[in-house]
Amino acid sequence: MEIKQFEDKNLAHYSYAIHSNGEIALIDPARNPQPYYDFAKQHDVKITTVIETHPHADFVSSHLEIQETTHAKIYVSKLLGAEYAHQSFDDGDTIKLGNSFLKALNTPGHSPDSISIVAIDENGKEHAVFTGDTLFIGDCGRPDLREKAGAITSPRKELAKQMYHSLRNKLITLPDSVIVYPAHGAGSLCGKGLSEQNSSTIGAEKMSNWSLQSMSEEAFIQELLVDQPFIPKYFPFEVGINKKGAGGYQTSISKVLKREAITCTDCANTLNPEILIIDTRPQDQFKKAHLKNAINLMDDVKFETWLGSIVNPNESFYLIAENEEVLNQLIERTSKIGYENQIALAFVLDYGNESSDEFDLEDFKNNLNKYTIIDIRNPSEVKAAKIFEQSIHIPLYELRERSQEIPTNKPIVVHCAGGYRSAAGSSIIKSKIHGASQVIDLSEAVKTF
Fold first, then answer.
1. Which sequence spans correspond to the domains of the chain?
2. How many angstroms separate the CA atoms of 267 and 271, rounded?
3. CB distance 419 to 446 below 8 Å
4. By C-alpha distance, which of 324, 316, 318 is closest to 261?
5. Which of 127-141, 152-166, 426-440 comes out lowest in average pLDDT?
6. CB–CB of 47/66 below 8 Å?
7. ∠ CA(167), CA(121), CA(34), 5° rounding?
8. What pLDDT is attached to residue 294?
9. Residue 232, pLDDT score
10. pLDDT per position as a tens digit, 363-388
C-alpha cells in the first residue's frame, strides 16, 4: 500500500491517493482533478474509488467529475443526502482496494454525516486513518458549520457532544501506531488550533492533542465551542455545491468571460457601475490608480478565503489582475470555492480614475484623537491585544454590511495586523461612504505600534 498526500496551501487542504495492487482510492479530492490523473498515469493504475469524508464547507471537491471521467465509484455516508450516484459507506462497511481494505467509521461532530476511513494493509494491519475534519493534528473539527446547511442540520452543542464521543469511542480506540491523515492543516478555518504538521499517529495525538485528553463531556463541549473562528459567507454555499456535485473544472473556468486590458477612460466607462469590483493588484499599484469603488483584495495565499468572506454567494463581480498570467491563476483559484460563475468579466487593468488618500504617519502618531480608527482584525485577535484603545472594531468579513456604523466626522484610519486586510478594508469603506470622509490605510505601519 502506498499513500500519497496532496496539499493545497492556499486552503490548507490535504487530499489523498491510496494505491494498492493496481487500484487507487482518492479521499477528499480538490477542485482540480489533474494531479490525481497524473499520479494514476505515473503508476499505470486505475482510479476505482472516491471517498468524501463529508460535504466540505471550504472548497469545491472534484468527486463528481472524477466519477464521470474514470467511472470510479463514489462512497459517502448515507446521512449525507448526496444528489449524485454513490454508494453508502458507514459503520461496518468495507471496500476492497487491490490487496488492501478500507473500513468506514461514522464520526459525527464536525458534521452529522462525517466519516473516517481506516486503511488496512495487505497483512490485515490497521495502517492509517483518514479523519477528514473530525480529528486534526493538535485539534478537532469545529461543530458550528451545520446549523443552516446540509441534508441534515444540527445545533453546534449537539455536534460538539457527538464529537466528544466520536473521538473517544471510535478514533482513540485505534492502535497507537495508526497514522493520522487529516483533511486540513494550520490556516484552515475548519478548526481553531491546527498544527503545522501534516500527519501524526493516534499514539502521539493521545499524548498531545487537547481534544483527546481526559475530561468530562461538559468540559469538552465548553472548550470546543469557545473562540471558534468566523464562518465565511461561502461556507454554507459550498456544502450545497458538494452535496450536488460540481461540474467539470476546466469546462467551468473556460466559460469565464475575459476582455482586453482596460487602459483608458472610454474602456472603463463600458463597465456596469452596479457590479462589485475586486482588484487583486499590489496595493502600491492600486493606491496610485484604481477604478472607483474597487476593493483591493490582493493576490495572496489567503485570496480564496477572503474572496468568499467578502463577496456573497451568487453575487457578480469583476476580477482584475496586474497581468494575464496572474489573471488566469486567480480564475482557477476562484473556482476552488465555486465562485467562477460569478465573475462578470475578468481583465487586466492599467488605468484608474481614482487614487488613495495620502497619509501623514507622524501626524497620526502625535494626534490619535484627530482620527477615527477602525480595527478590522478578527475578534480573537482583538481579544488577545487591542492596538489602539479608542478604535472601533468591525472585522473585515462584516465590513460591507456594517460600514454605516463608522462615524465620518474625522479622517478614518483602517488597520489590521500586517497590511493585507487593511488594503481591502480601507477600500471597502471608501466605496461605502462616498467621499464623506478621508479614508486611510495604515498598512504595514501598524507594526510600529
1. 2-240, 248-348, 361-448
2. 8
3. yes
4. 324
5. 152-166
6. yes
7. 85
8. 97
9. 95
10. 999 999 999 999 999 999 999 999 99
In CATH, the architecture of 361-448 is: 3-Layer(aba) Sandwich (3.40)
To the question of domain 248-348 being in CATH 3.40.250.10, the answer is yes
pLDDT per position as a tens digit, 238-269: 999 999 999 999 999 999 999 999 999 999 99
pLDDT in tens, 154-213: 789 999 999 999 999 999 999 999 999 999 999 999 888 899 999 999 999 999 999 999
Predicted pLDDT at 276: 98
Q: Do domains 2-240 and 248-348 have the same CATH topology?
A: no
DSSP letters spanning 60-111? ---HHHHHHHH-PEEEE-GGG--SSS-EE--TT-EEEETTEEEEEEE--SSS
**151 has a pLDDT exceeding 70:** no
What the block records as the C-alpha cell of 401 is: 454590511
The side-by-side arrangement of strands in the sheet containing 295-296 is 295-296, 276-279, 317-321, 343-348
The Cα–Cα gap between 29 and 128 comes to 18
Burial of residue 326, with CB atoms counted within 10 A of its CB: 0-12 exposed, 13-18 middle, 19 or more buried: middle
Residue for grid cell 454508494: 87
User: How far is residue 184's CA from residue 164's CA, in Å, rounded to a whole number?
Assistant: 19
Residues 6+ apart with CB under 8 A from 251: none
CA angle 326, 327, 331 (to 5 degrees): 115
Given this model, what pLDDT does residue 190 score? 87
Q: Give the type of residue at 107.
A: T
C-alpha cell, 301: 495565499
**d(Cα 149, Cα 238) in Å, to the nearest integer?**
9
Residue 193 to residue 210: CA distance in whole angstroms: 10
State the pLDDT at residue 148. 64
DSSP string for 385-409: --SSTTPEE--GGGHHHHGGGS--S
**Residues constituting the chain:** 449
Q: Under CATH, which number does the domain 2-240 receive?
A: 3.60.15.10
